[in-house]
Specification:
Belongs to the eukaryotic-type primase small subunit family. By secondary structure, the protein is of the alpha+beta class. It has 16 helices and nine strands.
Length: 408
């Protein structure tokens, strides 16, 4: 079976169109929400088609199965039908607050891989990012409806579906993005995190450090071995900021062999300096280093942009052929990109299942969706739970609208 046939079979049998409609219609409180949503297709030959829109799940499924796009992107909800963009001007009205984190932005941290390559060691960087941003969005902003999705190759996306998040204007989105941005500057900038010296550490930073501290030794000192060579150690010591303090650390670090021992030596020098109370100016220097290496590196343009397109959950990554699956942020430590379903594997799983006896097939297909017997089932469950939680929050609003109508 050719790849396009696999893809068409996937859209026909696996892609959760009904759950998509339940998600993006947002309880149908406003009927235009799903109809005015933009979808975009990536087609063979680097062709990109924008402004697809549908009235319901059935129309969307029919068009996707017929067109068989290599990838699907999701845009905002407009004031008019996107399909009529040539005759009616489009202005974005709503869009989920989205976040994009990519492992390629951590190449200065990763010694195990670079670029598009990933492994179990560097995936831990994504685990830290997911836990840190998830905590901030829930605790600092009060958002409840977060969908975390593996991008299909080396990154993660987060979709925030709360009404207040969807209705943020560009200024509001920029404010959220700026609040969550701690690591600043490109490859040309050496020191990318500077904490204020005369003020208490902000709760965002202190809460983030609680997460980062639990991973720092394993990721930075053991897996990535960031202080292994003299040159590596010096590049990190250059982030200290105070020449006298740095030189004292260099002496002690050079006496050690392993990265763990070298970092411990740096901590001991800093502690001794702070006890003297002669110079508390750089008391946060090691915290800054931890943040620089492990704090999430957001693509803030994805968050700021009101009409930015983002890869759809459950579409197939064109390069890896893996499904862009949702996952539970609480279980991100056990999530393994290598175990994410591949397109051809999914089709073969279902083919094998369908070859079983009639009695077993009947039992399995009774009130169960087609994908329930495959490795996609757990990801569908995560998505369904996300939708169900949102639907429970809509019921109150729907009742409020019904009560208002009855008053008339």
């Amino acid at each position: 079976m050719a790849t396009d046939e696999f893809l068409r079979e996937y859209y026909k049998r696996f892609f959760p169109f009904d759950l998509y409609y339940r998600w993006m219609s947002y309880g149908n409180v406003e009927p235009w929400r799903f109809a005015n949503r933009e979808f975009a297709y990536g087609l063979p030959g680097d062709i990109f088609v924008r402004y697809r829109s549908f009235f319901d799940a059935a129309e969307m499924k029919a068009d996707v199965v017929k067109t068989c796009p290599e990838r699907i992107d999701i845009g905002p909800i407009y004031n008019n039908l996107p399909k009529h963009h040539n005759t009616n001007p489009l202005t974005p009205r709503e869009r989920e607050l989205c976040f994009d984190i990519d492992l390629s932005d951590y190449d200065d941290v990763r010694s195990c891989c670079s670029g598009a390559k990933i492994c179990e060691k560097c995936w831990k960087l994504m685990a830290v990012a997911v836990k840190t941003i998830d905590r901030a969005l829930r605790d600092d902003f009060g958002f409840q409806h977060l969908l975390w999705v593996f991008s299909g190759r080396r990154g993660v996306h987060c979709w925030v579906g709360d009404e207040v998040a969807r209705q943020l204007d560009s200024t509001g989105r920029s404010a959220v993005a700026e609040y969550l941005t701690v690591v600043r500057g490109g490859a040309e900038k050496c020191k990318k995190v500077i904490l204020p010296e005369s003020k208490p550490i902000h709760p965002l930073i202190s809460n983030s450090l609680k997460i980062i501290d639990s991973y720092f030794t394993k990721i930075c000192l053991i897996d990535q071995d960031l202080l292994h060579t003299e040159a590596q150690a010096l590049s990190i010591l250059n982030l200290v900021g105070d020449e006298k303090l740095k030189n004292e650390m260099v002496v002690e670090v050079n006496r050690q062999c392993r990265s763990e021992e070298k970092w411990q030596a740096m901590e001991e020098v800093l502690d001794a300096t702070m006890k003297k109370k002669t110079n508390r100016k750089f008391s946060n220097c090691l915290k800054e280093i931890k943040l620089q290496f492990l704090y999430p590196r957001l693509d803030i343009n994805v968050t700021k942009g009101f009409n930015h397109l983002l890869k759809a959950p459950f579409c197939i990554h064109p390069g890896t052929k893996r499904v862009c699956v949702p996952f539970n942020p609480e279980s991100v430590d056990s999530f393994t990109p290598e175990d994410v379903p591949l397109l051809d594997k999914l089709i073969s799983e279902r083919t094998y299942s369908s070859s079983e006896g009639t009695e077993n097939k009947a039992a399995k297909l009774n009130n169960k969706a087609y994908y329930r017997d495959t490795s996609l089932a757990a990801s569908i469950d995560v998505f369904e739970k996300f939708v169900l939680n949102m639907e429970s929050s809509w019921r109150g609003k729907l009742k409020e609208i019904d009560d208002q109508r009855m008053e008339f």
